[in-house]
Design a protein that fits this description.
Layout lengths: L1 H19 L33 E2 L5 E18 L5 E19 L4 E13 L11 E13 L7 E7 L21 E10 L2 E12 L8 E2 L3 E9 L9 E16 L2 E18 L2 E14 L2 E15 L8 E9 L9 E2 L23 E13 L2 E12 L6 E2 L5 E3 L8 E13 L4 E12 L1 H5 L6 E11 L1
Parallel strand pairs: 14-16
Antiparallel strand pairs: 1-2, 2-3, 2-23, 3-4, 4-5, 5-6, 6-7, 7-8, 8-9, 8-10, 10-11, 11-12, 12-13, 13-14, 14-15, 15-17, 17-18, 18-21, 19-20, 21-22, 22-23
C-alpha cells in the first residue's frame, strides 16, 4: 500500500504543480541523480521542491528525491522459441530513493537505495530483474574551488562514459549497474580528464547482499573536450583496461586482460547531427592475443521548420568477431559494460561479432508526444563466431552455419512526457530470423512489447 500511496502522491503533486506553472526556474531532473545541482535553489511555501536544498545549518544543505518505474514486458518466442515457446508477460518494479548532503567547503555525501521486484515471469527472475533492497550508491566527494576545480569521488557510484557504449548505468533492465571505486576529474587545457579505478557491483536478489565483483576490475583515463574543439565538434579520447578472471566467448572460457583505446567525435551543424566512435582493443584471452575493434556511426537530419519536426537517422555499427578458435589470435570485440537497450528495449542481441544497419525516423506529434519508427538489419561479422547477448554471454553458437545474415527487426516506439516528473513510454518490436538463425534451429520470430511509466522527483 505504501508504494501505491507514494505513486499517487508524487503523480498528483507533479501534475498540479505543472499546471499551476513554475514560479522559479527549476534545475532539470537527471537520470543519474547525483548530476543534479540544487545549490542556490530556494523553494517557495507549498512548493513540491521543498525537499530540495533544505538548510540544516549555515553550511549544510540536504537534498532528497526518488525514482519509481513500473514496467510491463511481454514476449512471444523469447530466445526464438527454442527454450521458451509461446508467450510470457510479467511486471517489473523499480523503487529508488536518494539523499545528498553538501557543505560549503566542496564536500558532498550521496547515497541512493534501491528495491527491484518482478512478478509473473514464468521462469523466474533474470539476473537483472530482482534485488529486494540494497545500497545502490554511497560515496563521498570533494570538489576544489574555481581556481583548482578538481573532483575526487570515492565509494559506490553510477558511471556513464560518453554514449555509454562501453560503460553505462544499464538503464533499460530493472536493476541498474553501479561500481565501487575511485574517480578523479581535473581540467587540462580546456579538456576534462577523468581517471578511474573501479569494480562492478554484483546484483544479488536478496536484502543487503550486493558486493563488489572481485572477478572483474576496470581502470582507465577518459578525456572530453569542449563542444567545438577540432573540426567544429566535441571529442572524447580514452583508454580503458579490463581484467576478468572468467570470461566466456564462443571459442572458450578463461582469463581475459583487455585494453581498449577509443576516440569519439560528435557535432551539430545546421539541421545535421552526427556521432561517430571507433575503438581498438588488444590484450590476451587464455593464451591468445586479442585484436578486436568496432566502428559505430549515428547520423541524423531534422526538418526543424516542418510539421512534427521529423528527424531522419541512420545508424551503422561493426563489431569484430573471432575468425578461428584454433589460431593464436582472439578477434571478438568486448563491449565491457554496455547500456542495456543497445539496439532496442528487447535486449536480444549484443554488440559482439555483429554488423547492423539501422535507419529510422522520429516525429513530434505534440510538444509532449514523440513517435519513433525504425528498422534494423543484422549480419555476423565473422562466419565462425557466434552471437552474444547484451552482457556478452554466448547466445547462439557459430559452428554449424556459414551464413552471415542474422535477421531483421521492425520497431515502433511512443513517448509521452506528461510533465517534468512523469512520463509514459511504449515499444513494440518484431525480430525475424534470417538464414543463420534458421540454420541454427531458431526459425521463429520474436515479438516483444514493453510499456512503462517513470516518476522522478
Amino acid at each position: 500500500m505504501w508504494r501505491i500511496a507514494a505513486i499517487t502522491m508524487v503523480l498528483w503533486r507533479g501534475v498540479m504543480f505543472a499546471q499551476s506553472g513554475s514560479p522559479v526556474k527549476l534545475p532539470p531532473l537527471r537520470i543519474i541523480r547525483y548530476e543534479e545541482n540544487w545549490q542556490g535553489f530556494q523553494a517557495k511555501p507549498g512548493q513540491f521542491e521543498a525537499i530540495k536544498n533544505i538548510r540544516l545549518s549555515s553550511k549544510l544543505r540536504l537534498t532528497t528525491g526518488g525514482d519509481i518505474r513500473q514496467r510491463f514486458e511481454w514476449f512471444r518466442n523469447e530466445e526464438w522459441g527454442l527454450e521458451k515457446p509461446g508467450t510470457d508477460g510479467f511486471h517489473l518494479q523499480r523503487y529508488m530513493i536518494h539523499a545528498e548532503l553538501r557543505s560549503g567547503r566542496g564536500l558532498r555525501l550521496f547515497t541512493q537505495w534501491k528495491s527491484n521486484l518482478v512478478t509473473g515471469r514464468q521462469d523466474g527472475p533474470r539476473p537483472t530483474d530482482r534485488d529486494q533492497l540494497d545500497v545502490h550508491q554511497a560515496f563521498g566527494e570533494w570538489t576544489g574551488e574555481s581556481r583548482f576545480p578538481v573532483m575526487l569521488r570515492v565509494g559506490r557510484q553510477e558511471v556513464a562514459l560518453g554514449t555509454s557504449r562501453l560503460v553505462s548505468i544499464r538503464e533499460a533492465p530493472n536493476v541498474r549497474l553501479s561500481f565501487d571505486g575511485v574517480r578523479l576529474a581535473l581540467p587540462v587545457s580546456g579538456w576534462k580528464v577523468e581517471l578511474l579505478a573501479l569494480r562492478p557491483v554484483r546484483t544479488r536478489p536478496d536484502v543487503l547482499d550486493d558486493t563488489p565483483d572481485n572477478r572483474q576490475s576496470l581502470w582507465g583515463v577518459y578525456a572530453t573536450s569542449g563542444e567545438r574543439a577540432w573540426w567544429g565538434g566535441g571529442w572524447d579520447l580514452y583508454y580503458l583496461g579490463l581484467d576478468r578472471k572468467r570470461a566466456r566467448f564462443d571459442s572458450g572460457t578463461g582469463r581475459e586482460q583487455r585494453q581498449s583505446f577509443g576516440v569519439r567525435y560528435n557535432r551539430r551543424k545546421n539541421n545535421w547531427d552526427m556521432d561517430y566512435e571507433g575503438i581498438f582493443q588488444t590484450g590476451t584471452f587464455l593464451d591468445r592475443s586479442i585484436r578486436s575493434w568496432t566502428i559505430g556511426t549515428n547520423t541524423g537530419y531534422t526538418l526543424e521548420q516542418a510539421s512534427m519536426q521529423p528527424r531522419f537517422s541512420v545508424k551503422a555499427n561493426i563489431t569484430s568477431g573471432d575468425r578461428s578458435p584454433n589460431d593464436r589470435r582472439h578477434g571478438t570485440f568486448n563491449a565491457l559494460f554496455p547500456k542495456g537497450n543497445y539496439f532496442s528495449q528487447a535486449d536480444v542481441l549484443g554488440p559482439y561479432n555483429l554488423m547492423d544497419l539501422h535507419p529510422g525516423v522520429s516525429m513530434q506529434l505534440h510538444r509532449a508526444w514523440t513517435i519513433t519508427v525504425d528498422c534494423d538489419l543484422f549480419w555476423r561479422y565473422s562466419r565462425t563466431d557466434g552471437l552474444y547477448d547484451v552482457p556478452g554471454n554466448p547466445a547462439v553458437p557459430g559452428a554449424g552455419s556459414t551464413a552471415r545474415f542474422i535477421g531483421h527487426a521492425y520497431k515502433g516506439g511512443l513517448e509521452w512526457k506528461a510533465n517534468r516528473y512523469l512520463s509514459f513510454e511504449a515499444e513494440y518490436q518484431r525480430l525475424f530470423s534470417g538464414t543463420f538463425l534458421r540454420q541454427q534451429g531458431r526459425p521463429n520470430p520474436i515479438d516483444f512489447l514493453a510499456v512503462w511509466t517513470t516518476i522522478r522527483f
